[in-house]
Amino acid sequence: EKSENLRSELREGSRRLQALEWQSAEVQTALESFRNELGRFTETNRPTYLASSPSNHQLDKLELRVDNLAKGIQLVVAALKGINSDIGTIKGNVTTVVRNTRFIVEDLPKNCKEVQKRGYNISGIYRIQPELAPRAFMVLCDMSTKEGGWTYIHNRYEGVQDFYLNWHNYKLGFGNLGGEFWLGLEYLHQLTGYEVNELLVELVDMNLKKVYAHYGAFSFLGGAWWYKGCDTSNLNGKYLSGDVSEDYLYQGMYWGEFHGAQYSLFRARMMVRPRHANSPEFFPKSN
């Protein structure tokens, strides 16, 4: 309803602006006509010493005509000033409306949880705009795991996408939402930097055994947490598929509490959603 009211206000402002611009053009034409008439009058009634002096009746007619032309020009100029003032006011109002509603006209959800609340219960790709985001972007949503409403930030399951990339790549994100990807630190900050979120980590081994690490509070403000704890887990490591030799210890995609650094997992994904009343306590649970 709010978006429709804003659109109606913009349409009405545009209509009034167009009408005033047409009136301004008509007044300009009228003013030019008065000026031409005054010029012709001045030219045809220029004093001449060869002609006889005009009668009192002729002088009265000339004075009346001059007076009418002067009044007409004054009225046209006043009307033109008023119209131009109205045009300036409306343009200012339209600009203000556009500026103030730039991010809310579409009324986009802020995360996958809001997508779910609006009745979209099928996992897939959706367009969102978090509180801190200057523009909308696409995300992958999980609407079924643990009551759904999760926004993917990391997804690996086949080893096609290279995760051994530099800081710039991790800042902006890489991969494909339809496959393996890292969402990006900038988007992660926009998603979680203004409110506390849950973090769900799903891990699957080569025998398809699945476990979760569910963190009750998560918010990203900067840095790279996976480097700080790289001796206990590294879900951005090489995709090595199962047991690894001693030469590749700590190099695979591993989780310390699930097979450890000597085992590279089959699948890993990380997802976030805003914390709510039923969120777990502020510590991870594996199950």
UniProtKB/TrEMBL annotation:
Q: Does the keyword Coiled coil apply?
A: yes
Kindly state one GO CC term assigned in the UniProt record: extracellular space
Locate the transmembrane regions by residue number: none
Coiled-coil regions listed: 3-37
Query: Any idea where the Fibrinogen C-terminal domain is?
Result: 103-223
Write the signal peptide boundaries.
none
Q: Which domain of life is it from?
A: Eukaryota
Keywords of the record, alphabetical order, are: Coiled coil, Disulfide bond
Matching entries from PANTHER family are given as: FIBRINOGEN C-TERMINAL DOMAIN-CONTAINING PROTEIN-RELATED, FIBRINOGEN/TENASCIN/ANGIOPOEITIN
Q: What is this protein called?
A: Techylectin-5B-like
